[in-house]
């Protein structure tokens, strides 16, 4: 190598960059291996960043299509440009089926998005997902719900996503007095308000994904750092100064980062068609929707290379590169604690003030800032023990940065997953407690203000329906009372005991209501007609309504308590409770078909329905699966780090082996180097995640109960990953300590 000219002018950095590129691509097999590792690591992280960056665009496209098909301006009178629309929803087994009944009132009636024309009476236009459902097992039973023939498929412009189950049904009997809305256009719908709990879950999930990915990307650019430092020492030998070597090192990292951007873009394009299969049907995007915004793409393209350069330059501050070798600074820098407490303290303050999303973000970022100080504080106090323990601990005391970088991802992931599992577990418990029993009645149909005359006859004639019982309501002065026999009232609240003539004071969580004083006489009315009076008895028991009950009521009463007939004549009958044949699994589907014909927009409640609970349990399983996948991702980065450290310390391993250190001792020391930071990180994550979970549960009004099975599971998964990383590194350790390897060192 010839001497380097140091008088190159103000554009010397360009030649340094060119030299860095040449050194990166002309380093032989080891150089190409290092460049490949950097490009693969950065590329994997960039692909995940691009997928995350595409989520807002996909969500906006989905919401835009939903808004475009929302009903537009309403009209009072029929005309050539008006359309009658009735939005309906039903279920087929575990699938929610939504759609609209339409009837054109003129030749210029607006056409719904995704359709070429308004369906005529008896015509059914379905989404591809609904078409597959109709053609699948049990499709004949579902087809009976709509006496119409399928005439077409809804185009993508009329669907929120490719897996949405949706339909348009042409009707010849739709009327405004039957619940239909007369419109003159589609579009202009207002965006739906976001659920604060779902926003919080989304923020936590985003942080859980992004922080480990960013940590991994910044770790990946340091692969092969010792080889690069020896290369820079050779450059110093031929005349380069320290500033030039820093620029060359930055250029070398820049090459790997740019290649990683290219690999990440290809990985994103390859993964985009398969992302939808990992999401629920209501959130599945079209592949073309997954297009990251230009601003986010530009941010990734700029920040990844800039971050790579900054990480490289920062790492070189602790290294002195001389012409004859590389010297690492031996002074252990004491980390300061005060500024590391600022993010979690601010997060706690924001959580206390109700700012859940920002509070969660800062609290999880605080885990990353606290962990390096905590690891250093703990390992500084460790000592004694076996030779393997002392080797592992001493290595961490000298340099814990590399181990902490990978463990930070574990800590953030574990803390976030514990918080999510706590919220989901509370949601499962809440939905379970909200459901009435299903041993007496299995379903209920509510009139929702419609005239229910004749409904009991239609319901009783449905195959699989054994019994139909009535429930109604009336007014006691300014208070509402739910009426029915004891079996019926038990579907609205758990009763201590009940006989005809009993009455109860009803309460519901989150709903404030008053009560009448004992001994007061109030008028009793139903259907806006006086039915008598009621003297409030003393000592009435108080019961808590199921949250899934049809609206809050101040009182529950049997017919005998108010002196009315058992058939509730004169009151407002609004609910029909149904007993189904337990030996007919399709009875509920036939009931839904009957109600689609009688009153398609009438609410139908299935008692003991575990659909919502299964959704939350499915979300728990998805969260657990994502946590395991994320831990595998982090474990891969830890394994690469361990392998890289073993390669860099091969000379030290040779010296230790020559002095009698056994392979077993060296293997145990590697385990301690991985396990100690991981144990500290998991302990910090459990404390942070548990506290975060308790805070979020308290903020949402749910009972504060930690999900210990989930905490135990994710902790065991983290410990298993540490053991797996150690086991995977042992073959390389065994090879590096063989006699032929020692001779070369």
UniProtKB/TrEMBL annotation:
GO terms for cellular component: plasma membrane. Residues 204-314, 627-735 form the ABC3 transporter permease C-terminal domain. It is a multi-pass membrane protein. Keywords: Cell membrane, Membrane, Transmembrane, Transmembrane helix. It is found in: Cell membrane. The keyword Cell membrane applies. The chain crosses the membrane at residues 32-55, 198-221, 253-274, 294-316, 337-354, 360-382, 403-424, 622-643, 670-690, 710-734. Its main location: membrane. Coiled coil: none annotated. Pfam families: FtsX. PANTHER family: BLL1001 PROTEIN, MEMBRANE COMPONENT OF PREDICTED ABC SUPERFAMILY METABOLITE UPTAKE TRANSPORTER. This is ABC3 transporter permease C-terminal domain-containing protein.
